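User: My notes are a mess, but here's the protein and zinc ion's SMILES. Can you give me a structure?
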Amino acid sequence: MRIALQPIGDVPREVLEDLIEDLKGLGDASILDPIPLDPAWREPKGDQVRADPILDEIEPEGAHRVLGVTAADLHTGAYDFIFGLAKVQARPAVISLFRLGSTDPRVSRERVAKEAIHELGHTLGADNCPNRECVMSFSASVDAVDRKTAAFCGRCRPTIEFSAKRLRT
Ligand SMILES: [Zn+2]
Ligand SMILES: [Zn+2]
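Assistant: No problem, the inputs look usable. Here's the predicted complex:
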């Protein structure tokens, strides 16, 4: 699978380069030219940005999937904030770095990788998973992100592998 990483606004190059490494289990990622954060996505009150219109805007540019990466604080209708958003079996996904930072850069990197794999997992047909260790378990806090692993559980893995195989043929 080919994954396009779409920086939205200012995103540290290092984060994107780490993602290329950390997404190798899913596919080959490459970095697109950054696009600006559209002011229309911002909430009129507060500093948050709506995630849904970003999914409508970003394009895989020839890759199978596109993962938007932004430093902005994202939210969507049902939640005050989200680490990322994707629709099941659709091409675009987006993650926010805003709440994933840690004083330990290794922890920050792991969190970003887990949420990136989680959202791309949705685009490959996996739903949120009840197994708390599975990367597809929904995380409402960074503690929950830290508790789960970066791996798909035995129930989610076949879904991911089936979809990934279909992309190759
Ligand atoms: Zn999810
Ligand atoms: Zn699972």
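Residues 2-168 form a domain with the Collagenase (Catalytic Domain) fold (CATH 3.40.390.10).
User: Great, I'll file this with my notes.
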